[in-house]
Amino acid sequence: MDNAFSQPQTVVVLGGSSDIARAITRKLCAERTRTVVLAGRDGTLLERAAEEARDFGATKCPVVLFDATDPLGAEAAVDQCFEAAGGQVDLVIVAVGLLGNQERDQVDVDATLAMMNVNFTWPVAALTRVRTHLLDQGRGRILVISSVASVRVRASAYLYGGAKAGLDRLAGALADSLRGTGVQLQLLRPGVVRTRMTEGLAPAPFTTGVNEVADVVMKGLADGRPVIWSPPLLRYVFTALRHLPGPLWRMVMDR
Amino acid sequence: MNRQRLTGWGRTAPSYAHVVRPSSDEEVAHWLESSPVIARGLGRSYGDAAQVGGGVVLDNRGLRGMGPISPDGVVSVGAGLSLDEVIASALPQGWFVPVTPGTRQVSVGGAIAADVHGKNHHRDGSFGDHVLEMHLVTPTGERTVSPTVDPDLFWATLGGMGLTGVVTRVTLRLMRVSTDRVLVDTDRFDTLDAVMSAMVEGDDSYRYSVAWVDCMTRGRSMGRAILTRGEHAESTESSPLLRAPRSALLKVPFSAPPGLLNPLSIRLFNEAWFRKAPRQRREESQTLGAFFHPLDGVADWNRLYGPRGFVQYQFAVSDAHADTVVKAIHTLSESGVPSFLAVLKRFGPGNSGPLSFPMAGWTLALDLPVGPARLPGVLDDLDDLVADAGGRIYLAKDARLRPERLRAMYPRLDHFLEVKNRVDPEGHLTSDLARRLLLS
After folding, report:
1. How many other C-beta atoms are found inside a 10 Å radius of the C-beta of residue B188?
2. What is the ipTM of this complex?
3. What is the pLDDT of residues B215-249, one digit of tens each?
4. CATH of the structural domain B181-402, one choice from 3.30.70.2520, 3.50.50.60, 3.90.280.10, 3.20.20.80
5. A139 contacts in B (CB within 8 Å)?
């Protein structure tokens, strides 16, 4: 149960082995989280994340396997996670995502579809099922990990940014539709974070580590703001970038 | 059915449930076939005790009716009546409730579920100590229980947070009074030590006693306090005045903006409160309402805490661990977490309820607005302090305890769970609080 300070006790993480999700899980377990269901593709990585969660105070860490390139499997995966939690789920973190390789993926229809499935279609299918479970509970929260890349999609990463933009807008409106139900959805829009996913990318301004993101998330979960920016300053940076005239935008962002 | 958003008095951790209002034992029994289900009275528990997300919440306000008062003060009342309603009809006949918490706006059923206490606990015990018998509807049938008939179930229900069944009717013993007034002695103390010594020495000679402690001052005046103690005023007139307390004159119309209650405003309030008290005053005549329920004068005062709400932290420790009270006030005062005047009181011996809160010694209650980032951690540390001292926190106030801390505080928890399991083997009765603390 969430307590008076909005600290969850039972959490489901879809994409539980991602570096950002693991950092958030560690902080949640250090506070109140005792049951954390870790779901994802790689059993070995998930077991490692489960062990880490236990080190930080979790007592029950079941692992659920799914393949995010197959949206038809999302419903069963979510049901399995709620089953494994064995009670009411306080928080569902949707951390599924794939950065891909634009140069390679943009000439390959299968790769393009995989990018859409992992970053958009699977998470949306999962959200549909999560929504039903949480409405039945009469309470619960969802944290959807979007990206600042969704705010204005860059030419050099239009597959990733475009899919995230779809997820971001859809989830934002889903959040609005859930008002007055006891279910709350929050969006996380991180900037570039040093993770396995971004290894080898050219350094970008406002790059942070995963622990800084997790700290910002903990604050955002406590106060319930609809959109959590990490670092917080990016809210203003991207509000400005979003309104740049096209030529200027292309000059700044797509050199 | 009617789907509603429910929270406790602290307005934290909301959940939605179907709210129904049964008005007979049969209707209660019918609703107990559904799961999960919990009863709710007037929603004065501070945390998540009287709500169950996604389930059925039985509003007990349909369980009404009050029988005649016998010459020795015994009366049968519907569990959905509020203490306000009981007092309104009993007081003009010369009877008062034997125990009243800081508000009249609790239902009789809720008073039993939390086994509430008042300013006279050191003399008269808790609410349950004046219950002769109660009728309980459980998922496995109805029964009337008392200290002699199924005592295990009777005591588990007192303080059992509604988890053993729904109380529908209660037989109580009222207290004889000859006026509607209390004679109050007030003393102001500059230090916590001074007020605690005065309470240890003098409380036994008063029926009612409570101290307000300022947790916002540091250094020399840390823990300065106002002690008020009283006795029912006696009258020798043949037809004394016995008027029931008035209802609230003021109302907080909407939720205050966040931050209205901040360290500065609370410090100013506490300062004013302290300064307006006389250093010493004797036998001031106050109405029962003014003495027992000062906050009932302002309806919905909990809205002053703003949209994020507040928590109340209340713990009890034995006399041997009186230093825990000092440490707790010191910890809060040092952490800079804002807290309204804290309430300090002496407890007499507890009763046989495995989850009943009072235990001989001290109890301290603090109102704390949700918001400061360090507050959750400060309260977790206080839990450790209290548990290590063999003390406990009050479930009717709780909204944030860690489940693993509960067993140390209530060593007879397993006995409670056994009794609950006997009358509710399928676990229909649960609440958000029970889920959080793994009580079901």
Report:
1. 18
2. 0.91
3. 887 777 778 999 999 999 998 776 667 888 888 87
4. 3.30.70.2520
5. 14-16, 53-54, 432
